[in-house]
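stage 2 :: seqdesign
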């Protein structure tokens, strides 16, 4: 057990991913990255994701450190260095 906790966060983005914002609401947390990745599809089908007023919604599993580094402002996911899952995946 690594002791890491992974958070599953949803982001609303422009179509090209150049301007994304973390969607409101608490992130779900998981004890393993595999558990978190398995939950991405359900998160993208959630009411929060479906009600988001953005052309694209992405889900991402990340450590608390990664999530804190992104902050709450606008993020360009093309430059974030993290692979995001989207509803089309």
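stage 2 :: out
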């Amino acid at each position: 057990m690594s002791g890491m906790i992974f958070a599953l966060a949803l982001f609303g983005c422009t179509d090209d991913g150049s301007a994304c914002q973390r969607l409101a609401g608490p992130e779900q947390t998981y004890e393993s990255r595999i558990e978190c990745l398995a939950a991405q599809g359900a998160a993208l089908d959630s009411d929060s994701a479906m009600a988001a007023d953005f052309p694209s919604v992405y889900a991402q599993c990340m450590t608390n450190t990664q999530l804190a580094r992104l902050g709450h402002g606008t993020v360009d996911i093309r430059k974030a260095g993290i692979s995001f899952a989207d509803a089309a995946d």
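stage 3 :: structure notes
- The helical segments are 33-38, 40-44, 47-51, 64-70.
- Residues 17 and 78 are 6 Å apart (CA to CA).
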